[in-house]
Amino acid sequence: MRRSYKFLLRPTAKQALALAACLEDHRRLYNGAVEHRRTAYSKAGVTVRYGDQSADLKHIRSYDPDGQGRWSFSSQQATLRRLDKAFAAFFRRVKVGQKPGFPRFKGRGWFDTVEWPKDGDGCRWDSQPEHPTATFVRLHGIGHVRVHQHRPVLGRVKTISVKREGSRWYVILSCDDVPAHALSATGAVVGLDMGVASLVTTSDGTHLANPRHLQASAGRLAAAQQTLARKKRGSKRRRKAAARVAALHAKVRRQRLDTAHKTAVALVRDFDVIVHEDLRIANMTRSASGTIQTPGRNVAAKSGLNRSILDAGWGVFLTVLAHKAESAGRELIAVDPANTSRTCARCGHCAKENRVTQAEFICMACGHAAHADVNAAVNILRAGLALREAVEAA
């Protein structure tokens, strides 16, 4: 199986400048390639492809030895492939009638990653294995950069990427042939109901808390954003204020990811089969319908609900859960969540009146009373087990 590892880099001041220069030159290469494609098509009706732009790289490097010529040829090819994938996705969306989204030029804040597609070609993981206490990654044009390796790397390192997040630099390893460590069977199954009051409610009645990290940092974020709004555009103080806002958002993102990992580990350790809702989070968090002239109903309430859903991090949690379940040899089943919160887990009666409040469920047919999220989790578990049996019988 494939797995990614993300480690914090500890570059020297000189290496940090070189990393920033490398990222900027790759951004300029990307933007130049976008302009090349646009101009060729608009002026001559010619479609430029990756092979054409990759062949031009050697000329670009020879004309700019102190700029583009400083960096790995393979990493520059990876940047051009990245653009080629963006154009391929654009044409695919046009073909199926979706909103196309033409590839854009990348501003300084929208290009943060450089990739080396093969370990040993312009980069080398663990480049100083004889060092007794530290790990280093060697990057062409930058040198041996120290890595804060907090866990062992398993499998074969395939690609190496460097990413800037605020003032921090990270190295990301994509590894193949990572051995799976299947956990011993427990014989237990569980259904999960995702929520806002509780992040996860299980079919056995357990409520896993929603920490609401964004809400906890809302005061500091509001103050930082107000400070940013008062600064003159293009000034040094504005850049510092923007960095402060970005750092606060990055902290919230790391806290949310940490919660997702800890919650997923606990579930994967205790259950062989995990059934969850197949949520369409992008659809659930759309703005309330309407226009400025004729606004929709309950716009403020919908905005608050959207913020709470995104703060809970359902998408992050489900992604982490899927990866951990695969690694541990657990079975993960996604089911349609329609009417799971309205259906009685005892008699099967379905009606919106069954859910009295956010937390209270009372069946209008049989009188069954339970916590609404626990009732929904039981229905989700039953639907998942039924789907599993149907697949096995087919």
Low-confidence segments, given as residue ranges, are none
Write down the overall mean pLDDT.
Answer: 92
Strand percent estimate:
15-25%
Number of separate strands = 14
- The arrangement of helices and strands along the chain is EHHHEEEEEEEEEHHHEHHHEEEH
Give the CA-based shape. globular
The value of Rg in angstroms is 25 Å
Separate helix tally? 10
Please list the strands of the largest sheet in the order they lie side by side.
2-6-7-1-5-4-3
The helix fraction, in percent, is: 40-55%
Per-chain topology:
Blueprint: E1 3-10, H1 13-44, H2 50-63, H3 73-96, E2 113-116, E3 123-125, E4 135-139, E5 143-148, E6 156-165, E7 168-176, E8 189-194, E9 198-202, E10 207-209, H4 213-216, H5 218-229, H6 236-270, E11 273-277, H7 281-284, H8 299-312, H9 314-328, E12 331-335, E13 360-362, E14 369-371, H10 372-393
Parallel strand pairs: 8-11, 11-12
Antiparallel strand pairs: 1-5, 1-7, 2-6, 3-4, 4-5, 6-7, 8-9, 9-10, 13-14
Helix pairs in contact: 1-3, 2-3, 5-6, 6-9
Kindly list the characteristics that best describe this protein.
single chain; 394 residues; alpha+beta; 7-stranded antiparallel β-sheet; 45% helix
Summarize the structure in words.
There is one protein chain. The chain has 394 residues and is α+β, with helices and mostly antiparallel strands. It folds into 2 domains: 3-176, no CATH class; 189-393, no CATH class. Helices cover 45% and strands 19% of the residues. The strands form 3 sheets. Strands 2-6-7-1-5-4-3 form a 7-stranded antiparallel beta sheet. Strands 10-9-8-11-12 form a 5-stranded mixed beta sheet. Helix 2 runs antiparallel to helix 3 (73-96), helix 5 packs antiparallel against helix 6 (236-270) and helix 6 (236-270) packs across helix 9 (314-328). The longest helix is centred in the middle third of the chain and has 35 residues, at 236-270. The protein starts with a strand and ends with a helix. The model has no long low-confidence stretch (mean pLDDT 92).
